[in-house]
User: Fold this.
Amino acid sequence: MSRHAFFGAIALLLAALAAGPVHARERVVVGSKAFPESWILGEALTTMARSAGCDAIHRANLGGTEIVAAAARSGAIDVYPEYTGTLREVLLHAPNSTNDEVRALLANDGLGVTESLGFDDSYAIAAAPSVADKFALHAISDLIGRPELRAAFTHEFLGRSDGWGGLRARYGLSVRNVRGVQHELAFEAIASEKADIVDVYTTDPQIDRLNLRVLDDDRGFFPRYDAVVVYRLDLTRRAPEALAAIRRLLGRVDRVAMTSANAAVAGHASLGAAAAELLHAALGPAAPSPMAGPTAGETVVHDLARHVELVGGSLAGSVAVGIPVGILAAKRRRIGAVALGGAGVLQTIPSLALLALLIPLLGIGVVPAVVALFVYGLLPIVQGTYTGLTTIPVALVEAAQALGLPRTTKLLRIELPLASPSILAGIRTSAVIAVGTATIAALVGAGGLGDPILRGITLRSAPLILSGAVPSALLALVVQGLFAGLERVVVPRGLRLTHAD
Assistant:
């Protein structure tokens, strides 16, 4: 064998050895909705996929059903925990479909579904113990003729066909004082006697903690919500080992184990600890252990860095587009009316709705969040540029024209410097808006300081909320300070003095 052939064979061998680990470390993205049980199941699924040698990551807290389902359809996530009732009622709009029909409908979107994990977590209505005793409430039909009761229902329950609307029609309920609240805040309301009835999941640990009375669904309205796993069908080709590992959990997670894990998180145990407890209950000593999570300090630093990344990326885009659009609007008044009107319309789109619309196009994570923040940052910059250029004193404009300067030189050397206070004010407003609005980006898996805030609200944890809110407030102050310094550099001294007066 020649020397070249020998080294060629060695190179091929090394390439083959390298290709093995790359293939074995196929990336699997697990998603979960914005409530603790989904977080725990998502972490457990992630742990199982990692045990099969995959590079699995968990995108937790992805908002409601529609958002996480859109992420699965688009391929932004590969796996997520779901419930059969939700699949039929909300996603497929086929409440009477068989299991085979459910699988066929999901396959149209490139999705598959497993058998049950072993427990059902159905909707129910629960009453405060004092209220249940006072009105002798034992079944949902006992609510008939009780319009004075105060209900605190989750927004998803209020909007679902298998939620409040359908329940009210089935039972003929006349409860008028109905408020939409976040799930854990509903328990806060009922504990402080500001609500009488709430919607619950049957694995809610708060049922026992608050001694709530779960009312019997005596007319059989609520369907079963067996916990299942929805996955992309191409996972059977890309990472069959991960899917096989996840399937080890099927039929092994009972309601007692799930309720216990939920209670652990409600008691401020870490997500990894709760997932480890659930896996041990399901698989015994052979259960894989979740990866150790970062420390609290590391988490805050990571969230802050991601928040700055979101704000900086979106603000750069808003400035790059907003200033030219503002200039065009000032020079072409008809175009200006359209540009300002369009930017204003974009500003009115609810942030969560915009994020949901972007998921099928851009997936989840940083990209849709930055695009949404870019959209919200346009109006102040376009408006500031337009106002700055159209309010320059006429005498100064005429003087510039008398000098015979080229149009571009006049814009860059005369008009933009004169308009700089207004332009900079618009950019500063856009930056502050981005700092606050970026918290909602956590609902599409972008992370940032919104993540601990949303988790803290769900878990009623003031320290967790503050770990996101305080750095966010400090970041806003830093932004204000940076722009105050930038004004000294960008705005001509004479205009700074005039602006200060």
